[in-house]
Amino acid sequence: MALQLAQEGEAQNPLLPELPEVVIGLIAFAIVFLFLAKKLLPNINKVLEQRREAIEGGIEKAEAAQTEAQDVLEQYKAQLSEARHEAARLRQEAQEQGAALIAEMRAEGQRQREEIIAAGHTQIEADRKQAAQALRQDVGKLATDLAGKLVGESLEDVARQSRTIDRFLDELEEKAESTGAAR
């Protein structure tokens, strides 16, 4: 009985399973492992591979989009720089044209002023000559009348009248010049 108890005591040990249970457990494990290895593991690997490809593709797409965005940004900056340069050039041209227009208008104004002054001088000289001529005639007539009254004879003769007038006016001019020179 002791032997039987020893065998039962050994059978009762939960840490040491019986051989048929171990064999059945190994067969069941092998079936589950083969099922998992044949059916489930390929599906898991397939899903993982698709996910890896999607992530890599997304990263590549993001990098491509970032590169494209960078290119567009560079083009935009270049266009903006070109537009600013063009605006500065146009502003400079407008300033130069404005300065040229102002200079041209000043030159035109100066020319017109000089023409007006020259025309004024010409008109003044013509008026002075005309006034001098009219004055000379009036003074000559008065001098002739006065000389005729003083002398008592008529100075109606044109030649005599002309000589007398010329002599009188020459004397007046000499007095005027000597008075002007003395001042």
What does this protein structure show overall?
The chain is mainly α. It has one domain (31-182). Helices cover 92% and strands 0% of the residues. The chain is built from three helices and no strands. The protein has helices at 2-11, 19-151, 158-182. Helix 2 packs across helix 3. It starts with a helix and ends with a helix. The model has no long low-confidence stretch (mean pLDDT 83).
Quick description:
The chain has about 180 residues and is mainly alpha-helical. Helices cover about 90% and strands about 0% of the residues. The protein contains 3 helices and no strands.
CA-based gyration radius: 66 Å
Please describe the biggest sheet, giving its number of strands, its sense, and whether it closes into a barrel: none
Work out the strand percent. Answer: under 5%
Number of domains: 1
Classify the secondary structure makeup into a structural class: mainly alpha
Rounded mean pLDDT score = 83
Unreliable segments (pLDDT under 50, ≥5 consecutive)?
A: none
Number-wise, the strands total: 0
Looking at the structure, what is the overall shape?
rod-shaped
Distance between the termini: 178 Å
| Helicity level | over 70%
| Total of DSSP H or I helical runs spanning 4+ residues | 3
Helix-strand sequence = HHH
What is this structure's SSE topology?
Blueprint: H1 2-11, H2 19-151, H3 158-182
Helix pairs in contact: 2-3
